[in-house]
Amino acid sequence: MKYFIVAISLLVELSLSAQDFRFSQFDLNPVYMNPAYSGSSKDLRIGLNYRNQWFNVPGKTLPGPLSSYNLAIDKRFGNLLIGGLSLNLFQSYKGEGYYRHSHAGLNYSWHMPTKRKDFNLYIGLGMSYNNLSLDFSRLTFTDQISNQGGYLNTPSSFIPPDNGNRHYLDASTGIVAKGNLGKAVSGEVSFSVNHLNAPNISMNQQEEGLSRKYTSFGSLSFRLKKNKVYLNPKIMVEIQDPFQTYTFGANFYVVKRYMYANIQNFSKPLYFGLYYQASAFELASTNSMILVAGHTGYFGNSNTRYQVGASADVNIGGLNIRSNITGEISMNIILDTGNKGGKPQKCFMFEGNPLSPL
Description:
The protein is mostly beta strands and 358 residues long. It has a single domain (2-335), classed as Porin. The chain contains two helices and 16 strands. A hairpin with a 4-residue loop joins β8 and β9 (185-194).
């Protein structure tokens, strides 16, 4: 019965509507959200993300019944391209692993030259190759089940199309604006559109275009309590017909203040976050609280930086509490490629913005 339910749910989902896999720690996975973030950290950045959704859903123990991996590598190339390039690799599994989505994307972000060092504008474009794989041979269909005899040891009359694989190209674009709004306030806004070409993702010989996804994001950062704490409120709105998801909350950064080259700078070794998320699909909706914690620092005496974060999505409405939480682990490493032989600056000061997180 379990396999039958998995088969029916997958086929219904693929023939009616589909929603992109999403990450709660979007700060540690910016290229996945918007290709314009490519090269935004200047140095070579390597990001790893793992998400396991709803631990109690039946399916594979590893990597998980509803799980995803993401690897992003990006770097700014200065005068060569006047922008940044990024490579994004993504793979997700559903249920027993019979359904798999693999993604490999290349993104370019043009960094508009500005006279002000505390303001930046990026415009990005991405192209990706995608593969959807569904192992029909491991599924049980309705003509293999009898009300009297239960499961039948007979083959199904269903003929799998294209060996259970769908290959397609996908395009995305986005824009990011960020900068200082004063001596102690900074902010950024971004907007992206995924699936510009609405690729066909049907696995049953139908024409089912993947709906475009529109993502709006805004963030502010300002100092509290005499330089000891920074508050970083954020809001993100994702619309992908017929789904709508709203996420808002804030990170709290524990701050260390110091002077370097007669300039006041701040490092943020610890941070904690709390977010509320509401998702709507036609008449159904799911609500959750997202708890975030992380640490930032350096490797030894080098200027190579890292940020490690963990989050837990706790269902508070719209889903049975027995589905349990969703867990996510992320890590970013930013290699020092622009300060060779120099003294480490020990500063989270990027894009002329001393308030931005890593």
